[in-house]
Amino acid sequence: MEKTMYSSLLSIKEKYDNYTKQLNEPNVFNDIKKYNQINKEKSDIEDIYHNFIAYLQAEESYSLDKDIISNEQDEELISLAKDDALNQEQIMNNLEQKLKELLLPQDENDKRNVIMEIRGAAGGDEANIFSGDLFKMYQKYCETQDFKIKIVDSTYGSAGGYSQIVFTIKGEKVFSKLKFERGVHRVQRVPATETQGRVHTSTATVTVLPEIDDDIKIEVKPEDIEVDVFRSSGAGGQSVNTTDSAVRITHKKTGIIVTSQDERSQIMNKETALKILKSKLYQLELEKRESEEHGLRKLAGTGDRSEKIRTYNYPQDRITDHRIGFSTSLKVIMDGELSKIIDALIADDKAKKITEAGL
């Protein structure tokens, strides 16, 4: 292991041991606020600590094996030590790789829930139908992860699917899994209305926002927004509520428009819409920060076919993520096995960050 990394890990181990000691001190134990703060800081480095302890144990066993190989006369013991040394070396290599990943700066939003928006883009009715297919794919994926989906707002396409659908996803570290889904998704298939059997290309845009909690202060002044109420509508625009319970909020400074119509009351819809608005404003702040540090990276794109991050090719039963050149069976992914792509994207992202960090 590289010396700088080893030294950093020793410092983290010392910090963890110190936190453990502090938590047993009466003045900390009896101060709930202080106790919780120290316990949180300890928890934040717990994975690193336990993996480094395992590394140190393997390192000690490896050293003992090397000592036996160098000084022992018994051939059987030497043979056993050589086998164990190889095993301990493999354990150390695996733990070192894992520790490199754990040492990477964590995305501050990885633990958050998600607000996702899917819109039909290029391709008219077929794009809207594809938006509906993407929503079903995410529904099935969320079932495999025990994530909970709740629709906030939706506009049905005239031929099926959605021209727009907004929904929340709640669960364990949802954003860490789904943040790579943002961008333009392209579909290639023969539409049901196509009489000549020609393959059409359409797109849908996916936006993924971290759902912010009270720990992030985003101020929305009453004078900065315009609130409209209207009746909720279902498929084909038909009214599904006899009262004006749906809420539309327009943020005057940015032009962001947010709608919520799937809650049971106007008050609840307004609360949901404000929460989404705050998440979008928070995302604008993150974009501004990224723009200043790395250059702007758009979160969804315009929907142009050339911007695609992924292609869903139905005739060939193939899905390809163009960012990492990963291809697999389309049917399997649409049936909910999206983890195959997500895991590959996460692994690629970690590898790039490790290289950039020089670990």
TrEMBL record:
Methylated by PrmC. Methylation increases the termination efficiency of RF1. It comes from the Bacteria. It is found in: Cytoplasm. The keyword Coiled coil does not apply. Transmembrane segments: none annotated. Keywords: Cytoplasm, Methylation, Protein biosynthesis. Residues 231-247 form the Prokaryotic-type class I peptide chain release factors domain. PROSITE patterns: RF_PROK_I (PS00745). The keyword Iron-sulfur does not apply. Belongs to the prokaryotic/mitochondrial release factor family. Peptide chain release factor 1 directs the termination of translation in response to the peptide chain termination codons UAG and UAA. This is Peptide chain release factor 1. The gene is prfA.
